[in-house]
Specification:
homodimer; 306 residues; alpha/beta; TIM Barrel; globular
């Protein structure tokens, strides 16, 4: 099966725990620990994962050594669709050098978020990123183009859907085969998800649309459900609900893989993932991080006393 | 406004923190503390709340003194729609004696749950409860009839929707003006909520349908959203996401009032509740209970360091 091929009774999940999940964790994972987690995730049935980002390890220490991780994962789990996040030209060069075949390239739709993260206005970041998408596609890499803050940004009143649409169309035209709309700040609500999906998908009918949702305000699964009902079949997830800022307890993680697998399982929608094996992954993350993670299904299936 | 009158742009929330929220807490709240919580909830704009249950205080010590609480709440906050849970004839007599004007009477649709909680099969419990509904209505009490485990029970494979429908019709015929479907075990999923609401509401078109949802598996708000989109305009909530078994950390609370208020606020649906004042209520509950509660919006609006 092509990794993008899904239907109403089947969805695809992209595991983000090693990238978005760990990027802000102070506790650094060794290469061996990351490989252990990839192995446990693969055993649970995860078929697609982001293993990290090609960013400056001085800025994001958790991402140090992503080259070796990439090579080891490619060698040991050739069946996995393994991708990574790239935010600039140096990152793309590094990713190409170590043989990445799938990449996520992303820009922010929010002016303040773009200036803080990419060091320039969204328009300039989009121009640069469009060039990088073209370059990656020319090198035979499958590109997913992401729009961060697609549903708003805490420092701004609103991110116009028109701006998101314009960015999506430009990135799609440059050759990205998948478009990811990210609720970076966990601000989306279900009606907004439905509206944006219905606006974006018809504008890029030949592209796969995916959603990256955070549970900051408790709406992660409600938003995911709204996306599913609007036709989205590919979702980012992170075991345990890892992610966000580790200094705010339980605050802002990704939607938890195990909770998403349970939801789809209840609705008769196949994910290909074994929930009980996934709980083993969550428990191992909790053990390594020394704290409970916010996902609910580990509590249900492997409860610990308070 | 009649407490049941709502529209697509307006919903009504029934606060359950003093009943479902506290019933399993070992830490007993004094009368003064309960009155303080009612006051804070009323200041936040809560218009309707369940203050407790008329059950044997030897079985549920938290409910000791509900008579005095009822009288004090009626005297101090006459504008509040104040109700309580009644499960048997003695409870009804006690509730009538202290002047309750709104009551929730409920039965379980699950055989094993009914036998464990009511000491008899659902059919027998339903017969008894139907008699109590009639009696309460004859006494001029507004009755909400609830069906527990309407979406399933952990000890059984399935609770048939037909059994839920039959119970609802019988309780409605006995004079209940509101029907509450309770996901007691937190087992519902959004498609199931939509299906059951669409099955039940047309069968009792003149009754108000309400939902009581737990977030055990992370689906509380997704289920609430499904109910809202299927036409439900009245939901049970509990500040902080209180509720469920306190021995399983963060496991099984009600949908958190503050998260529901935030969701509806984002969608332009009025609840009449001030989110920031509500956070004060949650913080006070956390202070009295000595732990963080699972609701998300307190973490967003009044974050504490991990």
């Amino acid at each position: 099966m092509h990794p993008h091929q899904t239907s109403a009774s089947q969805v695809l999940l992209e595991e983000q725990s090693l990238r978005d999940g760990l990027q802000n964790e102070e506790r650094l994972f060794s290469l061996a620990e990351k490989l252990e987690m990839v192995g446990l995730l693969a055993e649970a049935g995860i078929g697609r994962l982001q293993i990290g980002s090609f960013v400056d390890p001085r800025r994001v220490p958790q991402m140090r050594g992503i080259e070796e991780l990439t090579q080891r994962v490619h060698a040991h789990w050739p069946q996995l669709v393994c991708s990574a996040l790239v935010l600039n030209a140096q990152g793309l060069d590094r990713a190409v050098s170590c043989g990445m075949r799938h990449l996520s390239l992303s820009v922010s739709a929010s002016d303040s978020h773009s200036r803080a993260n990419a060091g320039c206005a969204p328009e300039e970041a989009l121009e640069r990123m469009t060039g990088l998408v073209r370059k990656a596609v020319d090198l035979g890499i499958t590109v997913r183009a992401g729009v961060q803050c697609a549903f708003g940004c805490v420092s701004e009143d609103e991110v116009p859907a028109e701006a998101v649409l314009a960015a999506v169309q430009q990135l799609a035209a440059a050759g990205a085969t998948e478009i990811n709309l990210a609720d970076t700040a966990g601000l989306a609500h279900p009606l907004q998800v439905r509206q944006l999906v219905r606006k974006i998908q018809p504008a890029v009918p030949d592209k796969v649309l995916s959603l990256h949702l955070h549970d900051t305000r408790g709406l992660g699964l409600a938003n995911l459900m709204a996306g599913y009902e609007a036709g989205v079949r590919l979702f980012d997830v992170a075991a345990g609900g890892l992610g966000g800022c580790p200094f705010v307890k339980d605050a802002a993680g990704n939607v938890a893989t195990e909770d998403v697998v349970h939801l789809f399982g209840q609705m008769g929608v196949a994910t290909g993932i074994d929930l009980h094996r996934l709980i083993t992954v969550v428990r191992r993350y909790e053990e390594l991080l020394g704290r409970e993670l916010p996902g609910k299904m580990r509590r249900v299936l492997a409860p610990t006393k308070a």
